[in-house]
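Researcher: We plan to redesign the surface later, but first we want a full-length starting point. Tokens attached.
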């Protein structure tokens, strides 16, 4: 049991006396599929930890989350707040642990932790990548995640143009989907809408699949609503410049990951495109709060904050929104240039190559290692810059913005 309990964030690293106190007061139970473990609005003082199986958490508005015991979401108490914001039902045979909230609070006092959107437990910001995660902006983001009101804003000029172009392309599903992907934020919102509407089928792995699930009319209506309500509004030239840079990077990275995916039969080009398009989705989220912090008017300070936290925060957000695991894993490693593994190239490899090229294309002095020192380049056969695939990658990066602009032309 000790080894099982150590997997939970609240318990890893606590002193032996606190650990023994927790184990002595915890009760292990089992339930069959369909059993209701916690009611919506419940004030039961006991907290639930999932040891084995699958749970479904349903909020008052009908939105639901699936939590499996191997997920990061299961490394903390499920539906922690009281009254409970979720109804918790077993979707498979489950084994779970119950412990009084007062006991859990004592452990949390010994080992700081916070909970994201109830069911997703993450470390406090100061345990993220480096000291920049202690910046007050990161606390702003986590506070809004916990309150369920975090937003991925669109770049206002791009979003408006995409909205107009979508209307023009409404009779052509392929062109409609390609146009939607010119705006990464709108793409993510369409994926989430498709996930919520057709939950039994899982999260779509391409924008084509998402549009097919929810329909062109509904996708267009969703996009227009987001353009009106969720675009970045900042008077800061530094923030505006960074938002434009994020958009260009995302478009270039999507073009490169799509090109690389087509070089191997086992890659799904649709999913690979999403990996490139959404790998830095945490950046616009953080930019939403930048105007609150005068020190981030300095371009270097803002760049450091975004680069240091976009991988981990992106992983948290995409996990929370139940995006495909492959996408989440790639985003989590987007800054790990030394990423290496046995076997064939994977989606993280193609993202690292795409991220490298997109960063280089910015024209600024990039803080990235040479390609020869990045295992992903060798695994994809890109060691020789004169290879046919390498030239295709360069062409994809160079023409990505022009192709996006073409889709938006009146």
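Model: Full-length starting sequence:
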């Amino acid at each position: 049991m000790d080894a099982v309990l150590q997997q939970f964030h609240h318990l890893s690293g606590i002193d032996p006396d606190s650990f023994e106190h927790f184990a002595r007061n915890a009760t292990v139970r089992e339930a069959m599929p369909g059993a209701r473990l916690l009611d919506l609005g419940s004030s039961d003082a006991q907290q639930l930890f999932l040891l084995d199986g699958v749970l479904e958490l349903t909020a008052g508005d009908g939105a639901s989350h699936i939590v499996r015991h191997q997920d990061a979401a299961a490394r903390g108490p499920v539906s922690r707040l009281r009254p409970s914001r979720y109804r918790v039902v077993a979707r498979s045979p489950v084994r779970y642990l119950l412990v009084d909230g007062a006991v859990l609070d004592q452990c949390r006092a010994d080992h700081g932790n916070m909970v994201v959107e109830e069911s997703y437990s993450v470390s406090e910001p100061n345990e993220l990548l480096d000291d920049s995660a202690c910046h007050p902006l990161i606390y702003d983001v986590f506070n809004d995640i916990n309150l369920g009101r975090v937003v991925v804003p669109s770049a206002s000029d791009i979003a408006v143009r995409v909205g107009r172009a979508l209307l023009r392309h409404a009779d052509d599903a392929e062109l409609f989907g390609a146009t939607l992907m010119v705006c990464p934020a709108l793409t993510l919102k369409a994926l989430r809408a498709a996930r919520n509407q057709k939950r039994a089928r899982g999260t779509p792995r391409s924008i084509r699949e998402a549009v097919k699930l929810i329909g062109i009319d509904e996708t267009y209506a969703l996009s227009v609503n987001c353009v009106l309500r969720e675009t970045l509004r900042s008077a800061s030239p530094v923030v505006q410049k960074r938002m434009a840079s994020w958009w260009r990077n995302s478009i270039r990275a999507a073009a490169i990951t799509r090109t690389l995916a087509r070089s191997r039969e086992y890659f799904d080009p649709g999913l690979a495109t999403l990996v490139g398009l959404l790998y830095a989705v945490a950046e616009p989220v953080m930019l939403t709060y930048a105007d609150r912090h005068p020190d981030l008017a300095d371009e270097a300070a803002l760049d450091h904050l975004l680069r240091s936290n976009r991988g981990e925060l992106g992983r948290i957000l995409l996990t929370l929104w139940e995006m495909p695991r492959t996408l989440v894993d790639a985003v989590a490693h987007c800054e790990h240039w030394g990423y290496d593994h046995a076997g064939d190239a994977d989606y993280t490899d193609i993202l690292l190559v795409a991220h490298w090229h997109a960063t280089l294309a910015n024209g600024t002095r990039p803080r990235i290692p040479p390609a020869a020192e990045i295992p992903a380049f060798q695994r994809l056969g890109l060691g020789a810059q004169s290879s046919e695939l390498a030239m295709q990658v360069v062409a994809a990066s160079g023409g990505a913005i022009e192709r996006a602009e073409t889709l938006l032309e009146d």
